[in-house]
Amino acid sequence: xxxxxxxxxxxxxxxxxxxxxxxxxxxxxxxxxxxxxxxxxxxxxxxxxxxxxxxxxxxxxxxxxxxxxxxxxxxxxxxxxxxxxxxxxxxxxxxxxxxxxxxxxxxxxxxxxxxxxxxxxxxxxxxxxxxxxxxxxxxxxxxxxx
Length: 146
Prior knowledge:
Helices cover 70% and strands 10% of the residues. It is mainly alpha-helical. It has one domain.
């Protein structure tokens, strides 16, 4: 889902015959092109890198606990889950996209593309994973795995 959310176009925007297709990364590259490198890096981290790392880390820790396996670095990855959770801004990005479409629709024609559905799915999975990840249960299971 994360790969498709990043490679599929989110929307096409048409103003007076000038059509532009947008991806998550196109916002990052445009910020960098306009001289906002640090902001572009922050958007790239919070919108692309952190969500993927957060979901992968949850999967790794939850799999180790469920299968009762001592996988390498599982405690460090558990700490990474805690650290990355506030940086997973895909749900915020999904809401911002809807707001942007409402505003852009006043100036031209906006058509939703498949990437928007993948972002919505990724946002839903991110929210569910964050809510379902029981930190106390994971800590107890990791202590048993020692």
